[in-house]
Amino acid sequence: MIFDNAIHTLDSVVKLQNFEHVGLKNSSLVTLNEALVLTDGGTGPGSVDIESGSELAIIPAVAGNFTFDPLLTGKGTLSARLDADTSAFEFSHNVGDQFAGTLKLGTSSFALEGLNTSGLTHAMLMSESGNITTVDSGVQQIGGLGFNGGTLIFGSVMPGDTIASNSIETSAAGTLDIRGKGTIQVTMPDEVINDIPAVDTRKNLLEQDDAQTLVTLVNAAGTVTGTGGQLQLVDENGQAISHSQTFDVTQGGEVVAQGNYDYKLLGSSDGIKGDGLYIGYGLKSLDLQGTGDKALVLTPRANAQGLQTDLGAQLTGAGDLAIEAAGQVVTLSNGGNNYTGDTLVRSGTLQMANDNVLGATGNLNVASNAVFRTNGYSQTVGALQTETGSHIQLDSGSVLTVSGTQRQPGDDNGGVIENNVLSGEGTLAVTGSNLTVHGTNIGFTGNASLTQGALVEMNGAQGLGSQGSISFESLNDRLAIDIADGSGVSSNLSKSLSGKGSVGILNTTDLTLSGDNSNFSGEFRVQKDAALRASDEKHLGTGLIDSDGVTWLTASGNWLLKNDITGSGALVKQGAGNLIINHELTYTGDTTVENGVLIVGDDSVTRAAGATLSGSKNIHVLNGGTLSGLGTVSGQVNNQGTLASLNALSGYETAEASNFTVGSLTNTGVIRLAGGKTGNTLTVNGDYTGGGTLIINTVLGDDTSATDKLIVTGNTSGDTGVVVNNVRGQGAQTADGIEIVHVGGQSDGNFRLQNRAVAGAWEYFLHKGNVGGTDGNWYLRSELPPEPQPQPQPQPQPQPQPQPHPTPDKPVQKVYRPEAGSYIA
User: Fold this and answer.
1) Is the peptide bond before 798 cis (omega within 30 degrees of 0)?
2) Measured between alpha carbons, how far is 196 from 583 in angstroms, rounded to an integer?
3) Which candidate among 217, 564, 686, 729 keeps its CA 20 to 30 Å from the CA of 85?
């Protein structure tokens, strides 16, 4: 059975007993609550292969010891957490020695001997919190060893011993990882404890923490990571083995710190290169006391190398730490540092060699030409202060957090990042802080996060780089962008946005979004003289656009707008594609359609009938632009381009006939109601001023014939040419005619046919009013207008003469198209 990218819990391993092999691959996590039983009826051990990145977790439901039985291979992780640290985890003889991954032991006991040692020949033992591993006598050869809160018991150390009688050797291909916390337990006679080595305080401070090794516990043939600063040395009773000495650290005639010297764990036998784990004596901690100009200064001696430039002693206290290392690199490797003062990188490079090596520092200050490098580790600082020409390298896997928890209450100043300071692929996290970023940091390709009311103010769109992402926790987290005119700073925000934050476009900033912001559901706030530009649906996500400036949307294909738009600002539609609005937009500024089509309501979703531009006061459709849809536009429309029914658009030809409603309309362009279906209407909810063209489809027949129609609730004026397309009409005699323009108010506008409207033997003409003359609508009728009545002639005076009877109207002459004559003959 193969688990491929699976997360699964097996509460009954009987389900696997008919399988000879179990494999885990592609980041699978399988949890076992019982001992694994493989093969038919559990008669054989079977095999388990765990690929790198996958984990088989053993968490038994029953208390007591646990034996892992199958053949074990792969480079992944086998983890175990039992009920108590007295419950033993062990390998059976079937496990073999082919496993090259990690055995991660939580709550449990483990005897590093025999079959257990053999099973780890090429694998790493990681002792987690709750684990107690006892090292058997002799040299136990395993692939690697690491600590994450666990305890290793090495037995007795006798006077004169340089190598413990119970020791470990890690392979040339393996790693000894002593960065984490852990406990080393040995039994040391009193005469050993009372033998205090001499301390040479004249040596460079960076070399006093690796000064003297006494007893070898682990010999590492391969890589050593860390210096053992967080490992505690205890006796058989669990009490710290200690005989400490304290000395003042004086620089420039001032006491800047106090140094504590004691028994400790070391990772190097020569103070230069990590090569094992040793009991030693040396500088164990520094209590920082001086601040500012009186800060403790770390400066490597000339030609120092390896661990001679590293400080593994713990840093405590409220004082400051300064690095002055021009042309050199100083590393800090103790993850248990907890000092609260400032960290001042004045020259050279300060490089992290463990997580949290800056303790709870209030400020990280990096001077011009100085460098701070995270080296893959993570750190929290109260504020980040940089100077022009400084450099901060956030390496992959690192998280540098600027947090208000490490500043004084009420202080929200998270510092300043100057132009071209940040680089790397790590993460910058801003938590409850105001951080100012100047210019661009194009070299930073990692991610940024804003949480707990964070504010990041930038005067360039690429202040946090051009790649990666910016995530927000809530609307209280804000990104404010203020780009001055003519500054030359990029206005293209290409980083991806996610979460529910607020992006402010301030003053005269003209901001272009180009990242994939599909997961952004916050808000864009555009100030009065500012602009926001987007050219794809993913650039805006589903965020609210609250704009008092201008929003420019450029659509090249079909863009269904998912964003609400509010505020007093304007909206400009650009691009040859369709921008589709299927909900209500309440912004009150002008709307301009420069190119392409703005569709207010289409038939793609059920809510399209609610599509409304309810607040926009003026809608300008320019030459080359089209306004269409089946929704409502409440404002006044000035059409120099095209107003179209939905099914008159390319791609919508099969849509049903529909109504499109606009406010008062000035038409100097084209109203195209003629589409894929007949019966479309344009309702002008106000006055209509002509000057352009109306194109309709009509089934030329009697008065009840289907037709497209212009409906005006107010008054009409101006002149409009009408083009009528006959849609399969056969012609018929009409009375009032086919109504194509309905006028609810004063009908002063003129509508005139621009083409012949013919059907069968009939030709239709456009008439104002019904035959009774009781309305101002416009009709297509197959008749001539009545001839004017002659005026009575004045009679001579003084004798009045009886008035002559008026000449009777001539009969209405039905009009047939001229071509019909041949048929009549």
Assistant:
1) yes
2) 80
3) 217
Q: b/e string for 402-418 if b means 16 or more Cβ within 10 A?
A: bbbebbeeeeebbbbbb
Specify the amino acid at residue 186.
V
Q: Which of 72-86, 96-110, 197-211, 375-389 has the lowest mean pLDDT?
A: 197-211
Residues 6+ apart with CB under 8 A from 590: 570, 571, 616, 617, 618, 619, 620
φ, ψ of residue 309 in degrees (nearest 5): -110, 10
Q: What is the mean pLDDT of residues 540-559?
A: 98
Q: In sequence order, which ranges of 401-496 are alpha helices (DSSP H)?
A: none
Task: Show me where the domains of the chain are located.
Answer: 2-251, 362-548
Helix (H, G, I), strand (E, B) or coil at 409: coil
Nearest CA-CA partner of 215 in 176, 271, 159, 174:
159
Mean pLDDT (the chain, rounded): 93
Q: Round to whole Å and give the CA distance between 355 and 109.
A: 28
Mean predicted confidence (pLDDT) in 20-24: 93
Nearest CA to 265 out of 199, 331, 184, 196 is that of: 184
Q: Which residue has the higher pLDDT, 18 or 472?
A: 472
Confidence of residue 657 (pLDDT cuts 50, 70, 90): very high
Residue 455 exposure: Cα atoms within 13 Å on the Cβ side? 9
Q: Alpha-carbon distance 772 to 579, whole Å?
A: 45
Return the residue matching tokens 């010891």: 65
The answer to whether the beta carbons of residues 182 and 127 sit under 8 Å apart is yes
- Short-list 116, 165, 166, CA closest to 142: 116
Tokens of 643: 């107003």
Residue 291, token pair as written in the block: 């601040």
Tell me the per-residue pLDDT of 210-265, one tens digit each, with 9 for 90 and over: 878 999 999 999 999 999 999 999 999 999 999 999 999 999 999 999 999 999 99
Query: 204 phi and psi, to 5 degrees?
Result: -55, 135
Two tokens, residue 387: 């100077």
523's tokens = 């808000």
Element (H, E) at 821: helix 821-824
Distance, in Å, from the CA atom of 378 to the CA atom of 427, rounded to the nearest integer, reads 9
Altogether, the residues listed in the chain come to a count of 825
Taking only the tens place, the pLDDT of each residue in 615-626 is: 999 999 999 999
**CA 573 – CA 75 distance, rounded (Å):** 56
Token pair listed for 74: 């792969």
pLDDT at 763 over 50: yes
Q: What is the pLDDT of residues 347-402, one digit of tens each?
A: 999 999 999 999 999 999 999 999 999 999 999 999 999 999 999 999 999 999 99
- HSE of 364, CA atoms in CB hemisphere, 13 A: 28
The rounded distance, in Å, linking the Cα atoms of 43 and 337 is 54
Contact in structure between 38 and 10 (CB atoms under 8 Å): no
Residue-by-residue DSSP string for 229-254:
TTEEEE-TTS-B----EEEEEEETTE
Structure tokens at 224: 């050593």
Is 810 a residue whose pLDDT tops 50? Answer: no
Residue 813 burial (10 A CB sphere; 0-12, 13-18, 19+): exposed
> Is the per-residue pLDDT at 787 higher than 80?
no
Contact 123, 96 (CB under 8 A): no
Three-state secondary structure call for residue 81: coil
The amino acid present at 702, given as its one-letter code, is D
